[in-house]
Amino acid sequence: MNKTIFENKNKGATAIILTFIIITVTLLIASGLSLIFLGEIKQSRLAEYTISAFYAADSGVEYALFQIVNNSGDEGDDVILNLTNKAEATVDWSVTGKMIDSLGFFSGTNRRVQLTW
């Protein structure tokens, strides 16, 4: 009879240990997945900054083309454009060298667009 009581006590301890192991494994998997998700969120934010910086550089090229077509700008001067989304672009162009160089900035990210003809 003592043997049966001893077995019942072990079954309770086994269930607790098994539950602890299952909870630990579940928490490890959840924390690993959360790290992956946080990395993906960060990457998508950086992609958004990259797009804004590229569009700022593209706006600089459009500005330079407008100045060239209308003969209203001084070539060789760096022009800084402050855009409404807090992005900026630095533009330099040369009609004789047939080149436009525009560098867009947004939240620490920069992208360059160069145009030659």
UniProtKB/TrEMBL annotation:
Name the residues that span the membrane.
12-38
Which keywords belong to this entry? Membrane, Transmembrane, Transmembrane helix
Which superkingdom? Bacteria
* Name this polypeptide is given: Type 4 fimbrial biogenesis protein PilX N-terminal domain-containing protein
Source organism:
Candidatus Portnoybacteria bacterium RBG_19FT_COMBO_36_7
